[in-house]
Amino acid sequence: MILGLSIGDKILIPGFIQKHREERGGTTYSTVRPISELNKKVVEACRQMVMNIDYQGLWGIECIKQGNDYFFLEINMRNDATTYAMKVAGVNLPYLFQQMIEHPNRDPNIKLVRTISSMVEFNDFNFVLKRKVGLFKWTDEFKGAECKYFHSNADPKPCKLMKADYIKFLRKRILKF
């Protein structure tokens, strides 16, 4: 997923998300990488596509890589959930968009994107339950993920609420069988 934003003739593409696992179309475990690590032809093709459709706003272009080739899957003309991981990696795209709207003549101050791992914890744990990922491997990945969508020591309430909902989901699933 190549993430960026467009305002007027300015198109910013700071980084991309390399998916490792997804469930029902939603990324559950991924790595955020600087755009310099992606094939320049792919980046330029994304820039051209956004320019040609004259889109203004936040966007994400999803591609699949097979060997050395990339194939276009879809374009999301919105701020999707992976934008949060990009923010944790160093570039807050919604904030940049707002700043570019308020100050169109100023060049945006873009920091370099750091390479980080990202996990939507509860959704990704389903891979352990389905025996597609081992518990120890998942635990290591969870501990190593700098971006977690629910777990936060600074604000534990969302994680506690999601944990309660997830336990209810598991109880229903177990009782159903």
The percent range for helix content is 25-40%
For the largest beta sheet, what order do the strands appear in spatially?
A: 5-4-1-2-3-6-7
User: What does the radius of gyration come to?
Assistant: 18 Å
Tell me the structural class.
alpha+beta
Separate helix tally:
6
Chain-averaged pLDDT: 92
- Main sheet attributes: strand count, strand direction, barrel closure: 7 strands, mixed
What's the helix-strand series? EEEHEEHHEHHEH
Q: Give the beta-strand count.
A: 7
Shape: globular
Extract low-pLDDT stretches.
none
Beta-strand proportion: 25-35%
Distance between the termini: 37 Å
Characterize the structure shown.
The protein has 177 residues and is α+β, with helices and mostly antiparallel strands. Helices cover 40% and strands 30% of the residues. It has six helices and seven strands. It has helices spanning 40-53, 82-88, 93-102, 121-129, 135-144, 157-176, and strands at 2-7, 10-23, 26-34, 57-66, 69-76, 116-119, 147-148. It has a seven-stranded mixed β-sheet, with helices on both faces. The chain is globular, with a radius of gyration of 18 Å. The chain starts with a strand and ends with a helix. The model has no long low-confidence stretch (mean pLDDT 92).
